[in-house]
Amino acid sequence: MNGDAALTSAPNPPFKIADIRAAIPKHCWIKNPWRSLSYVLRDFILAFGLMGMAVYIDSWIFWPLYWTAQGSVFMGLGHGSFSDNRMLNNVMGHVLLTFVLTPFHGFRIGHRTHHQNHGHADKDEAWVPLPENIYKNLDSSTKFLRFTILFPLLAHPLYLLYRSPGKDGSHFNPNTELFLPSERSNVFFSTVCWSLMFVLLLVLSVVIGPVQMIKLYWIPYWGVPLQSGTKDCGLFIMRYMKEICLDKELKFVSKWLRRGSLSYGVDDLNEIRIEWAKYFMKHETS
């Protein structure tokens, strides 16, 4: 294509978002807080049950199994899909996201901005293409942390702390341009909750020992393969969970141990798209 050729956009699809919403059965839009809370209780029982088993068995054969399963147990709250009660959403959001060292309101607002501008080269909050001039001006430590094998381990904490390259502020700082003045008190409260959780983890490290704390909390916290070439974070997690569920020969344990060199691409996630669509059409539209 020569430089004078005009770029043409693809034609609009033969349907609108309203048509998609109308095709989804009405019962799928009903938010049941009791069902949502039952899922939370189930996951808490599973998470702390796994933790208790790991401590009781205390075997290096079982620890990798624990890390794999626990890393999957750890968004609907930020989207408001947990219930119609905003207060309940906020309370449960702080309980659950603070537990995994994520400031609820800071992340909720940033994630909202991401979905409102999904794929936008300038306005997207989470998946921002990095222009060459910004990349060249990154300091060496930032390049090393973001573009090496350490990225899968540090991507989420770095994103929370510094946002994406080229954007100023932090998800912890109420005065960041990402937040409206009316949202700053909520962001501050979430940051306080995050700080208290971090202090609790430090106290627990003293009480039960730092090595035990690393095995119980920090390794599951970082135990996810790299997401590559796609923005579909929800499908990425579903693909990861599918591997765990179908791993009858326990090969996933060794895969988890070398996760830094692993990644999921578009083809891996297309498989989940197709399976989810078939499941939905079979069970929800009949």
UniProtKB/TrEMBL annotation:
Pathway: Lipid metabolism
Cell compartments where the protein resides: Membrane
Domain Fatty acid desaturase N-terminal: 10-50
Record keywords: Membrane, Oxidoreductase, Transmembrane, Transmembrane helix
Residue span(s) of domain Fatty acid desaturase: 77-226
GO CC list: membrane
Entry annotated with the keyword Cell division: no
Stretches that traverse the bilayer: 44-67, 87-107, 144-162, 187-208
GO biological process, one term: lipid metabolic process
Claim: Secreted is one of the keywords in the record: no
Family annotation (InterPro entries): FA_desaturase_dom, FAS_N, Fatty_acid_desaturase, Papain-like_cys_pep_sf
GO MF term list: oxidoreductase activity, acting on paired donors, with oxidation of a pair of donors resulting in the reduction of molecular oxygen to two molecules of water
Homology family: Belongs to the fatty acid desaturase type 1 family.
Name of the protein described by the UniProt record: Omega-3 fatty acid desaturase
